[in-house]
Amino acid sequence: MRSGWREDALDVAVRPEAAHHAKRRAALSDAFPGETLVIPAGKEKVRANDTDYPFRPGSDYVYLTGDGDPDGVLVLHPNGSGHDAVLYAHDRSSRETDAFFRNRDGELWVGRRRSLGERATELGIEVRSLGERDAALAGAAPAQARVLRGLDPVVDAAVLAWQPDRDHALAQAISELKLVKDEWEIAQLQEAVDATVRGFEDVARVLPADRGVSERLLEGVFGLRARHDGNDVGYGSVVGSGAHATILHWIHNTGTTRPGELLLMDMGVEARSFYTADITRTLPVNGVFSPLQRQVYDIVYASQQAGLAAVRPGAKYLDIHRTCMRVLAEGLHDLGLLPVSVDEAMSKESMVYRRWTLHSFGHMLGLDVHDCSAARDEVYTDGALGEGFVITVEPGLYFQPEDDLVPAELRGLGIRIEDDVLVTADGHRNLSAGLPSSAPEVEAWLAAQREAGPRLP
C-alpha cells in the first residue's frame, strides 16, 4: 500500500491578501507589547456519531491569517521589539504513515493537504507543525498571555491562567480593528453581495404567482447559489411567508407561500474568503402589493431611505437608529396604532413603538454577519461611524398574528428591507443597490425575473 505512488507538488504562490493579514497582525502586536497572543481556528464539531459539520474557522483567526483549516493556532510570540507570528497547523499525512490510509482526516479520505512550507508560502507567515504547539504555549508566561477562549479546548487547557478581563481585551482589540475594512475586504463584501443579488434573482425566477411552494424550496434555490458562487450561506436563511415574516429569526422554513401574501427573505452568501452579505427583501407573492401592504411597505421604505441618507463619517450610530425609528413611529401614528403622540412614543420613558419595530436599525457587517461584536460600546453602538465601516440598514414593522392591539387586517404582516452599506469619505455607498427596494421597483423586478425564467448557476 505504501509503495508505487507518485508525489505531485502543488504550485503555490503568496496570496494577494497576505499583505493585509500581515498589517492586521502588526496592529495587534502594537496593542499588546511583550505579551503572548493566542488565536485558535477552532475544531471540527460532530454532527452525528462519526459525521462532522462542515468546518468554518473562527472569524478572528481568519482575519489575522487567511487560513481556513481546523485546529490551526496563531501565536504572536513577543521578541523584544514586537512579535514573531507563527501559525501552528497540521502537517501532511504522507503515504508513509498509517494516518494517510486509516484516519478520518487522512489525505486518502479528505484529499491532498498543503505542506507546512506550501502553507507558509501562500499565507506569508511562518508555519510550524501542530505538534510543536503545546510546548510553545507551555513556555508562555501565564501572566503575559492572552487567549481567545471557547474555540479550542486543547488551547484553553494549555494556557491555564485564565484571566477573563485580559482575554476579553484581546477579543475587544480585534473587534475594533475589524471596524474599518480595507480595500481587499470591501472587494470581498461586494463579491458576497453580488452573489446574494444573483441568489435573490434565482429565487424570484422560481416563485410562482398563482400557487404555493414550500419555503424550503426557495431556501434551497438560494443555497445552491451560495454553494456555487461562494463558500456557503453566511447564516441560516430566513424565508418567511405570511405570518412567518413576523418571526425575526424564522429558519425552520416549513411554511408555504400563498398568492396575496408577502414573502420576507433575509439571506446572504458567504464568499470563499468567509466575508458575508446580509440582505432582506419583502416580495408580494402574486406580484403586486395590496393597498394596505403597500401602505406599510412604504413606511418601512421611507424609514430605510432616511437611515441611508444619514450614513456618513462622523454620524452617530444612535442618531441613525433614532432617524429610522422616528419614521416608523410616524407611520404607526398614521395607521392609528400609537396610543400616544410620536414625540412621547420616541421618549425613553415610553418607546411604545418598539412593540412593532422589535430591533435596531442595523449592525456591523464583515466576516461575521454581526461583526465586531466584542467592540466597546463607545466605539460601536454609542460611537460614530468612520470611513471604511460597513453596516446594514434594515428597519422593519411586524404585526404578530396574536396582536389584539392592531386591526385584524394587519395581523400576520411583516416587512423588512435591508441593504449593506459602506461608509465612504463623502457619505456612503450602498453595496446592494443592485437589488431594487422601492415598491414599484420590486414589482417590476419580480415581473422581469419571472419573465426571464429559471437559470443554471
Features:
alpha+beta; 457 residues; five-stranded mixed β-sheet; globular; 15 helices; three-stranded antiparallel β-sheet
What does this protein structure show overall?
The protein is α+β, with helices and mostly antiparallel strands and 457 residues long. Helices cover 36% and strands 16% of the residues. The strands form six sheets. It has a five-stranded mixed β-sheet. Strands 9-10-12 form a three-stranded antiparallel β-sheet. A hairpin with a 4-residue loop joins strand 4 and strand 5 (83-89). Helix 9 packs antiparallel against helix 10 and helix 9 (183-206) packs across helix 15. 41% of the residues are buried. The model has no long low-confidence stretch (mean pLDDT 95).
Mean pLDDT: 95
| Beta-strand content | 15-25%
Helix content: 25-40%
Strand neighbour order, sheet with most strands: 6-5-4-1-7
**Biggest β-sheet strands, sense, barrel:** 5 strands, mixed
Number of separate helices: 15
- What's the gyration radius in Å? 25 Å
Summing up helix and strand content along with how strands pair, one would put the structural category as alpha+beta
Report the uncertain regions.
none
User: How many E strands?
Assistant: 17
End-to-end C-alpha gap? 41 Å
Global shape: globular
What is the element layout, followed by pairings?
Elements: H1 18-31, E1 36-40, E2 46-48, E3 51-52, H2 59-65, E4 73-78, E5 83-89, H3 98-102, H4 107-110, H5 116-123, E6 126-129, H6 133-138, E7 145-147, H7 153-158, H8 164-177, H9 183-206, H10 215-229, E8 232-233, E9 238-241, E10 262-267, E11 269-270, E12 279-284, H11 291-309, H12 317-334, H13 342-346, H14 354-357, E13 390-393, E14 396-399, E15 413-416, E16 419-424, E17 427-430, H15 439-452
Parallel strand pairs: 1-7, 5-6
Antiparallel strand pairs: 1-4, 2-3, 4-5, 8-11, 9-10, 10-12, 13-16, 14-15, 16-17
Helix pairs in contact: 9-10, 9-15, 11-12
